[in-house]
Each structure stands twice: as structure tokens, then as C-alpha cells.
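Retro notes
What went well: the complex prediction finally ran end to end.
Inputs used:
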Amino acid sequence: MKSLFNKFKNVAPAAAFIMAVGGGAVLQGCSSGPGEGSATAAGVSSDAAQAVYVAPGKHDEYYSFLSGGFNGQMSVYGLPSGRLLKIIPVFTQHGENGYGYSEESKAMLMTSHGFVPWDDLHHPKLSRTNGMTDGRWLFANGNNTPRVARVDLTTFETVEIMEIPNSAGNHCSPYPTDNNEYVIAGTRFSVPLDMKGGTADVSMNEYADKFRGSISFIKVDQDKGDMELDFQILVPGFDYDLANGGKGPSSDWVFFTTYNTERSGTLKELGASQNDRDYLAAVNWKLAAKYAAEGKAKEMPAYYYHNKMDKDSHMAKSTIKKSVRYLLPEDCPGMMYLIPAPKSPHGIDVDPSGEHMVVSGKLAATIPVFSFSKMQQAIKDKAFDGEINGIPVFKYESVLKAEVPEPGLGPLHTEFDGKGNAYTSMFVSSEIVKWKLSDFTVVDRMPVYYSVGHLMIPGGDTHTPDGKYLVAMNKITKDRYLPTGPELAHSAQLIDISGEKMRMLLDFPTVAEPHYAQAIKADRVAPNSVKFYDLAKNTHPHAVKKESDASVTREGNVVRVKMTAIRSHMTPDNIEGVQVGDTVLFHVTNLEQDWDVPHGFAVMGANNAETLIMPGATQTLRWVPKKAGVFPFYCTDFCSALHQEMQGYIRVSPKGSNVPITFSTGKKKPAA
Amino acid sequence: MKAYHKVLMMIASLSLGLLFLFPMWKIYLQAPQYPEGLEMHIWVNKISGDTEGSLQNFNILNHYIGMEPIHADSFAELKIMPYIVIFFIVAGILVALLGKRKLVLSWVVLLMISGAVGIADFYMWLNKFGTNLDPSAPIKVPGMTYVPPLLGSKTLLNFDALSLPAMGSLGIGLAILLAGLVYFFSRSTVHVKTKRKVMA
């Protein structure tokens, strides 16, 4: 069945495509026997277990960061073991540690639309130095409510989130340039801009005339990593899908795939699939930055949030930005070009040499590879075929280097091993295809289960890939694991690419939906990992650094509890004088200065999560008691032999009661 | 005493300065959940550890068994000892300058006595902390005391404790050794000198 399918696929790609769209998964299912063994053994290397076994107590060779997609978080896995090390909350509230629930972290999720407690995180990108991943920060996009986040890899915490104005569906985002000069973010959904920082109230029938896209250039502080939206380019109203920066000779450029160049405002699955060719947009970011600096940029009012976590107080603060600069391509000659690319292209990936731009057209029968040097020549020769909004469109052949023939069905993304090979994920034919950059021929195929989206090679998107492993991220798992009802895990598959032939080593279920991932040698990150926070440097305004400073004070109907936690008690652990309807703020400082001793804090009936406090830090849990009584609170993270005893009580009296504020631990203290 | 004896005596007294640069004694603790270990460093003038939080971490662990918290303030010795060391350094330099053999001997003997008293004092403290336990402690093991070893290793519940002299003590050892050598070598020169006198 399988070989018949392959034969058929070779003679009639188009026909096979149609079949596969409808029945790809069914065909895959048919290809092997029923039950547990379905497609499991195919391609699995006989020494796979040894290759991925990381003995107890040993560390993995790589950190990998898999986006969580619709959970809005980032998962950290060790490779080659596939062990889940951490989930870093980024765009979504995380009850597990109080991110987005604690008073300190709420501001991280503020936007111009108010508090947005969720997003769809697609693409992690590691910061870079000289075109190589440097292990300092991880950037990530929020797709739904356009935002770009920065995770600090010394603490594995989200430290900054910037909202992107004039954008909708922040999908081709965030792409760092070779030295993090800019992180670039493009909009997937074009929208009618009102040029006042919002979208205009217009009819969808006016899509073709009124809708525009935007590409944002976020400047990154070279030392601290702090982001700042420098300027935007307002571009034609296509859908901007994915992007990637050039390298070496092309390092001044960034490339974006586009679809819906038909500018259809409805039923895009048909409307955006009419043109045989859409475009690959090429933007010279260095020239754009120069134009912006030289005064070509105009300014428009805007309204967007920029949220930063202070590293000493662990408090997030929002700043509202009220204007944004923008460039129009028609005013900026030489800044932007369009390359015709087959039908609704998805991935754009530039090979390590910077010469080849590989476009994976999900609906195309071949993989076109464009040449950067030919593009430079075409600019000189003015080998254009008209223009759109003042942006020159190249003749297809003038920039095309080659087309990879018969690569498979549904090519989506390509990464490189630095040894002259490219690897492309095939969503529809559900395989990884290895092909040579020298003669553009396919040399190996590896089936993956099922319907692979992105693939990732550590550094495979940089100019120095580490071509040892490849991770395929699959959208469909069906029978691959024990069933868990209708909602199933997505999967990642680890493939050894060190040899001529790919070897399947491991697959592991993942959290939510990993779209893209990044990986880096562990020794670039692990030595910088912070063990705990220095209590002496804690600048939280309500931190108490010793038990004798703990206090409970009333400020109107706000009761402020400045509490300490240390193995195995909280101070104070008996509190009285709180009244129904008061806002109680528990500012809990973890006094520990030891490795791996977080304390948690939760109070009965709080309409809130817990908060998890790292050693040396202060976190605040807000609680509004609704009824009188005595409410226990306790440490939620098993901290010590007497963790179960780490608890206390708070007494709530009716409104207007004359019970004074008192607090104590162990021996009774006088009233405050 | 020849010039080099005097220099050697100077070095002997100055080597006591190591006590201000390095701890005298280190107590190492290891437990299943402390793979990285915990160290307490005893100096001539303070108590510290391998990290800022070490002392606090020792006290957190010790409070479960009812041991009194260890604070530098609790030890009068830590206030007195630096002066004693400075006294020995100054006295040693004076001895070197005066070049009197008998003073060298007195200095060494006094230093050895002080060292011995210091170790005895240290032992008494270990004993006091290890046995004087709060009867209301959460963890009580009948018959169990927690006296860390003065020298060598010992298992205390889940902890392996190892106690060893550190670089600072080397300063005392060096001072005793060098001053001893000065005493020994200067004897032979005096001997020769008197012989010569007799012969003359």
C-alpha cells in the first residue's frame, strides 16, 4: 500500500495531493497493521534507546524550547532524552506559580484591550551574537493579541512583553537579526488601520482598498535586552505568514512569505488560494533603519502596552506608549521587493551561507529555492515585472535558483545541518525530506507521525547549525500513545541526522501545540542559571527581610500582611482583625537563601491562584474575604520535613467588628 | 642569631596573618538532598560558609533538632582572638628584632599553648551545641546527640559531617614550625661561637 502510494505520488503529485488532503492520515493508518504496532517500528534505529538514554543524575546535551501554541507558554525539554524540564509561563496565567495572578505579575499581561490572560505562542527565537545563538534571551510571539515577549535565560522567567500596534495575528514574529539589532514582527491578518493606533470601522467589502499589513522593528538593548518599538513599515494588505533573516551576504535582509495576495476578506481557504503565485517579500532592514533614522518615518498616534519585570523587586510595570513611527515602501526606494513564489507559501528559510532562500509552498508541487546573488543582480538589472504599492516585483526566473523536484506533499518548513543538506517538513505526506543544497535533489526520507509542522535543528536557522539532531513537531498523534479521550497530545520526534541516513530515535508527547522550537547546547545556558535571588538585593517595597519586621497593618479597608516564610513556618501565622470585604494583601517574602527551596502560599476560598515564592523574592496574593470565620493558609510547595506544619490561620470578623489587628507566631506579640 | 634566623622568625610571625585571610577550620556537611554540600567556615574573627546563606542554612537544618542558632555574636572568642593573633604577630616581630633565642622558645611555647586552648575551646563549643538541645524540638531521637567531629567524619542522621583544619590553621602550624627551626638552628651557631671563643 505504502509503495503504491509513493509510486502514485511520483507520477501525479497534484492528484495525490487532493487524495492526501482528504485521506492522508487514513492512508498512513492503512500502511501498517492494526493495534499498538501501527507504524511504530518504521525507521526506528536499533540502537535508538542507547542514543537517547540519559542516565539518572546525568544532564542532557541540549536545552530545547518548544512553544506551547494555544497554551501560550513555553516548554523546556532536554535533548536527547525528551525530558520535560520546565513550563515557562509567557502569555497565559499560570496557576502553578501565580504568574498573572500575583499582584507583581498581573501587569505583564496588560494590553490596550485590558488584561488578556491568554495567548497563542508560536515561535520561540533565541537571541544571537554574530549570527549564532548566544543563550541570553528567548523571544516569543503572542499571535492572537499581538505581543512579543522576552524570556531571560538566567532565570527562565518572562521579563518583558511588548504589545504590537497596527497588527493582528502576530504570526511572522519574532525574528532577531544577527546581533539582536532588531527583533522583527509581521502581521498575519491585515486590518483596516485608522492611523490613530486602532482598526477602522469599515465594511469587509472594502478589504482590497482599506486593509493593510505592518512589519514592526523592535530595537533590542545590546546589554539588557530591553525592547523598544523603533518603527513599522506599512505594507500591502496581504497575509504575512513567516519570516527569517538573511545571513552572511544577505544579513541586512529579512524575508517574509505572504499569501492572500488576492486580498480576499472572506472564505480565505478558497479566496486566498486563487493566485498561482503569491510573494516572498524581501526587506532590507538596515536600509529601513537608515530611512527611519534619516527622517523618512512619519509618526502616528498609537496606544500600546510595554510591560517589564524589574529584576530586583520582581514587580512588573506597564508603560503605555502613545505614538509609533512608520515608513511607507513607496517613499523608500530599495527597501522592499516582492519575489513571486508558488501558491500560498508558508515557511521561508535561509541556508547557512545566506545565499539560498528556501520557500516551502504548502500547496506547491516543488520547493523553489531563490538566490540572493541573483536577487542582487536582478535589482541592478531592474528585472521587474510591475510593482504593487510602489514595491517592485521581480520576474520569477530572475531570482530563482532551482526547484527541488518531487519533494513530497505539503512542504512547510526547512532547516539546515551546516553540512550542505536541507531538511523540509512535509505536512501532507507526513515525512521529513532531506535534500542537497548542491544539486537540489532529495536524498532521504523519514516518515513522521503524523502531519509534521515545524522541524528544528539546534542552530538550524543560524549560520552555524549543529547538525546532530532534528526534532519534528507533529500535529496529529491519534494511535501513537495510550488514548486519553478526544483531546490528544501533540508529539515531538527526535531524529539523528549525523549520518547519511536519518535515524528515528525517540518520540515524546508535548504540552499543548508546539509550533516552532529552538535548541542550544546546554553549556551555553546552564552555567548562568540563577539558583536563588539575593535577599539583600530584594527591593520590593513590601519585602520584610527578617521575621521581627513582619507586620499586619490596616490602611482603610486594605489590610497589608508583610509575611516571611522560612523552613518550616510563616511569620505571622496567627492574624486577627480582618473584616469581611477587606482587601487583604499577603506580601510573602521567602527568607531562604538556599538552592531549590521555594515556598508556596495559598489561603482557603481565595478567588485566586496560589503564589510560589522563590528564595529571596517577595510575591503578593490578593484576597477579599466574603464571609466571617477562620481561614487557614499554608505553604503549597513541599519544602521540608515539617512542610505539613507550615500553616497558619487568619480570622475574619464581620464588617465593623471591633476585633483589633493582632498578629503573632509562636509567642503572642502585642497588638500593632 | 644570624640575619636569616631573624628573617625566618619574621616570616613565622607574619604567617599568622593567614588567619585573617583564610578560615581556621571547616565543617563540611553532605546529605542526599544537599549534593552540592554545605560548609561552615570558622575564622579567627567570624563564622561564615561557602555561600552567603550557609550559616542561615545550617541554622534552619539545626532548628529541627533543637540546636541553638549559631551566630558570630554568640562567641566572645571571635572578638578576643584577633587581638591575640595580632599580639603574637607583633611579639614575634619584636623577638626577631631582639634576636634572643630564649624569647623565640617562649614565643613558640606560648603559641602552642594558645593553639591547644583554642582547639579545646572549639571542642567545648561543638559539645555544647551538639548536646544542649531544646526539649521542645520537633525532631527528637532518643539518646541522639549532634556533636560534630572535631577532626574527621561522623554521620549525624541524614548528614555526613567532616571536620578539617583549613588554611588559617596552616598559618599557626607554619609559625610553630618556622620558629622551632629558628630555635634549633640558632642553637648550633651559638654552640660554634662559644667553641671558637674557647679556642681563642
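What we learned: The mean pLDDT of chain A is 93.
What to try next: split runs per interface for comparison.
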